[in-house]
Amino acid sequence: MSKYAQPERRPAVVSGASSGIGAAAALTLARAGHPVALGARRVERCAELVEQIRSDGGEAVAHPLDVTDASSVEAFAKAVVADLGDVEVLVSNAGHVAPGIVHEVETERFAAEIDLNLLGAHRLVRAFVPAMVSRTRGDVVFVSSDVAVRARPFMSSYAAGKWGLEGMAHAMQMELEGSGVRVSIVRPGPTWSEMGTDWDDEEAAQVLNGWVKFGLARHPHFLKPAALADAIATIVAAPRGVHLNLIEVNPEAPLQEEK
């Protein structure tokens, strides 16, 4: 096989695969023919998706993954390679957001959220990217957020983490130029997912009202996770010689009624 060609078999890893964008990405990549390894703390949810993928004729495995724990990431990586072989695609999606006002949030909580949303991605990079560089091929896709370019109130640690994530990704794009490893960013706008479902009603209202106040909620439509999964699959499917380095996906506004 030419070093410029993609192999027919391209195993993919998806973190945060138990729900939302991660689950949708795993299903979409499997339908596109990728063997898929699903990782999350709620591994039982991933196991259900694995059964769905296999029943549809795909290949998938699930293993526990806590991206805030280096030993968990290391064990996950070893298990995935043993199951599926060399990993060709890494989708770094694990993340969490909790509401709060910057000067009221405890530093320990702020740090824990940065650890998950930023350092967790770096742990995955350390686990999978060196082998990609050695093989002179691979795709790394970071799932970011539009808060990386348009910070939203009451989500300060999430905004800080995603700003940092995109900074790391852009640096990697330059560092890996010419290596055969493509680093890409998918930047979702407002998306329906389980994020925010653990907030109480008062907290959720405060956050949404803040979005409206600062012009960050121009209309009520939200994306479905499948839209982001399609963007991820498009990046990964690009032929060698093409690098889709950033895709921002936003929900289309509802049609305006005639006056």
UniProtKB/TrEMBL annotation:
GO molecular function: oxidoreductase activity
InterPro entries from the UniProt entry: NAD(P)-bd_dom_sf, Sc_DH/Rdtase_CS, SDR_fam
Record-linked Pfam families: adh_short (PF00106)
Top-rank taxon: Bacteria
Keywords for this protein: Oxidoreductase
GO cellular component assignments: membrane
Family designation: Belongs to the short-chain dehydrogenases/reductases (SDR) family.
Stated name of the protein: SDR family oxidoreductase
Organism: Nocardioides pocheonensis
